[in-house]
Structure formats: C-alpha cells, structure tokens
Amino acid sequence: MQNPAQGRAPETWRGRGILMLCHFTGMVDLVALPVWVGALVQHYGFGLEQAGITVTAFLAGAVAASLFTAPRFGRLPRTACVAGGYGIAALAFAGAALTTDFGTLALLHLVAGLAAGTALSVTHGTIGRSANPHRLFALAGTALGIGAVVFYAAVPPAIAAHGGATLFKVLAGLMAVTALAALAFPRHARAGHDQAAHGRLSRAAWCAIFGVAAMALNQALTFSMLDRIGIMRGFGQEAVNQLLVVVGLVNLLPAAIAGFLDKRLNPVRVALVAAPLQAALAVTVSLAAGYPLYALAACVYPAVLIFMHTFLFGLIARLDPSGRALASTPAMMMTGSAIGPALAGTVATHAGFGGLAALAIAVGACATLCFALVARQSGTPAAATA
C-alpha cells in the first residue's frame, strides 16, 4: 500500500536536516536518562525516588502535550509550535540550572516537557507525512545516535568537573539552538489528508501504539537505572561513563541498518522478536554480577528499541497517512518513559534490582502480546508491503 504523494514535507536536505535536529533535541531525554538520574542523585543529593520523579515530571509534560497536539496536528501552526516549544523549554532548563530545590526543579521540568513535547509531536507528524517516513525516521534515528556519542563523551565529564547544573545548561543551549533552526521548519500542503484526518484509527494502529509504549516503558525502567546499577555493583563511575560512550557508538548503527532494510524485513515480525529480546537484555543488565556481561547487555539494549521503532514508525505511517498517529509518537515513547524512572526508582528501592528484572519480563510480555495483535489485525504479509 502506497502513501499518497500529496501533502508531503519538501524533500530537501535543508528540510531533512531541520527535522533531524528537532527529533534529536526532543528525544535527548531518552539519551540522557542515566546521566540525568545520576546527576540528580550524586550532585543534588536526591534519592532514587526523588530523582526519578523529577525526570518523570519532564516526560509526563511531554506526554500530556503530545496527547493534546496529535489530534489537532492538521490544524496547528507548525513553525510556531516547534520554534516556540523549544524556545520555552530552553528558558525552563536555564531556570533549572539556577536552583537546587526539589519542588522548583520538578515544576520547571514539567514546563519544559510540555513545551518540548508539543514541538516533538509536530516534528514527528511532519516526518510521518514525508514521501518515505521509514527512511526519514531512520535518518533522524541515526542523527540521534551521533548526538548520543557526543553527549556521552562530553556531558558526564563536564558534570563531574562543574556540577549537576551543567546538565541543565547543556539542555537549555540545545533547545535554544533548535528553536532558532526551527524558524525555517519545513512546510507541506494538506491536500489529500483532510478527509483522513477525521477518520478513526484502525485497531492495528492502536495495538502498534500500545506495543511501542510498552517497549519504551521497558527501556526507561532499566536504562534510567543503568548508571546506578553499575555504581552500586561496584564497577566505578569512570567505567560506567566509558560504557555510555560505547553505547552511543553502538547506537549509531541500528537506525541506519533499519533504513537500509526498509523493504526487506516485515515490521511486525521485527517487533515480535524485539520485544522479548529487549526484556532478556533488561534482565541481564539488572542481575549481572560481573562488569563484562553488564556492559555487553547495556551496549545492545537501546539498539533493540531504536531498530524496532524505525520499522513500526513506517508501519504506523501506512496505517494512518493523516500523520495524527505519528504526531502522538512522543506520547508513545514517553508515556512509558515518564512512568519508568519513578517506577524504577521505587521498585529498586523496595524490591532491589531483582524486582526490576521481574517487572521487565512482565512488561516485555505485554509488548509481545500487542504486536501479536497487530499481526492478527493487519496481517503480517500486508504489514510488510511498502
């Protein structure tokens, strides 16, 4: 099934570059999770629960903004939403760099999440209405991987040298640069999508959305605690920081490979393999007693979600060509991510990392069930058709 050619974003490298930057900036929280939680614990004196709740405030704001924005995607002023959203987020993070109060930080995180979530929803809806959403999302994922390498190489040492506020200064600067770039946000016509924008989403689309959300929850549960697991197992902060750089390097590959395999793999079958594999790696990270096994699982862990999500992004674009479902991508990704840090902190505090592993298995089973329902609703052969 082909997407209609009408209503697509301009296929220029300038337009793609802006969309890639907007994607990276909006998704940087998923890259920064272990550094973010670690900085709040180590430099602000927060417990795991407080640190998790602070990060969750940002992610919850992004989810709320996405849920509000997605149904209205076809009617919103896109440049104003993206540039304004990232601009407000920059101001909120600049304010966060000036305080150490838990309540104030949580409130500023919420404001930043609402603003950045609006911008990211519009970005993903626009990618979803491009000529080839799978390929463009793969490019955006590769950009996220490149940015992750730079982030992991530069930010943790800077935080160690200059304090936790450095993280918020970096985030504020990144948001500000993206806001300026988004003043030239790509436009596209709405012809051919107005009628689709009022239709109901298919059951297959809803199942795919819930499956992605479940995998995002599993990602956040373990990845947000990655730093703390390594430190509490006695591996040392330097070893954990070096591991994060390697994780970033490994994550350069999955989106690019997924883009290359666009027409070669069935997206539903990819998801059916990815969900249990992710759960198995989460268990390994949580329970590994030795550094080599912990590091090996941690390196591969984020790549599974990145690879799978590229395929599911393209599938959902075919199931809903209006762009509304993909405008809810931040809600898909960050509903789980919003719950994850706070839930992981609570579970780790009261049930240890073994409890975290058991939870990862349960969530992985839910994700697998959702993707099995996608296969049943849409038919796997149809899902594979471009």
What does this structure look like?
With 386 residues, the protein is mainly α. It has helices at residues 13-44, 48-69, 78-96, 102-128, 133-162, 165-181, 203-223, 226-232, 237-250, 253-260, 267-287, 291-319, 324-327, 329-378, 380-384. 79% of the residues lie in helices and 0% in strands.
Summarize the model shown:
The protein has 386 residues and is mainly α. Helices cover 79% and strands 0% of the residues.
Features:
Growth Hormone, Chain: A, 2 domains, MFS_trans_sf, transmembrane, MFS transporter, membrane, disordered N terminus, 15 helices, MFS, globular, mainly alpha, 79% helix, 386 residues
What count of domains describes the coordinates? Answer: 2
Distance between the termini: 6 Å
Put simply, the count of helices is 15
By CATH, the architecture of the largest domain is named Up-down Bundle
The CATH homologous superfamily name of the largest domain equals MFS general substrate transporter like domains
Keywords: Membrane, Transmembrane, Transmembrane helix
Protein name: MFS transporter
Organism: Pseudoduganella albidiflava
Pfam families: MFS_1
Layout of helices and strands:
Blueprint: H1 13-44, H2 48-69, H3 78-96, H4 102-128, H5 133-162, H6 165-181, H7 203-223, H8 226-232, H9 237-250, H10 253-260, H11 267-287, H12 291-319, H13 324-327, H14 329-378, H15 380-384
